[in-house]
Design brief:
four-stranded antiparallel β-sheet; about 150 residues; OB fold (Dihydrolipoamide Acetyltransferase, E2P); alpha+beta; 2 helices
Length: about 150
């Protein structure tokens, strides 16, 4: 179990959650005890999550996020957390719609379990659409932006 030092990662608990994922054929599992919380996800995206994303994030009801489920032009969230479009309040956004991005360029930061994780572009091209708002909660696999 976790020690009182919150900076120590409980590898045994993570390993047990990974085993549960495999055994139960799940795509994501979370565990919380006290102020310790662990989430483990795999690459597959659950249909339910995609439906929730399309209902909550897409302003144009004729064009839902689920249209982008398998679109190779989409950068998706690799984790559950809070997305930040800029490095700090008042700073310029990492990217705006219409900007050119290159591979490995930081496009957003996702805060997960009090850790700031820079998310780099896996694509190169023009940002056509940003699907998320600053400080919005994001799910694993949720579309963040469309790049062409």
């Amino acid at each position: 179990m976790a020690t009182k030092d919150t900076n120590i990662i409980d590898k045994k608990a993570i390993k047990e959650l990974v085993d549960i994922l495999d055994e139960m054929k799940l795509t994501e599992v979370s565990y919380q005890k006290g102020d310790m919380a662990i989430s483990v996800s795999k690459g597959a995206i659950a249909t339910k999550i995609q439906q929730e994303i399309s209902q909550s994030n897409e302003p144009d009801s004729n064009n839902s996020d689920t249209d982008y489920k398998n679109d190779p032009r989409v950068i998706t969230s690799p984790m559950v957390g809070t997305v930040y479009l800029q490095a700090e309040p008042g700073a310029n956004k990492f990217v705006n719609e219409g900007d050119q991005v290159r591979k490995k360029q930081t496009v957003v930061i996702i805060e997960a379990m009090k850790t700031m994780n820079p998310i780099e572009s896996t694509l190169q091209g023009k940002v056509l659409k940003i699907f998320v708002e600053n400080e919005e909660a994001v799910e694993f696999g949720q579309p963040i932006m469309l790049v062409e």
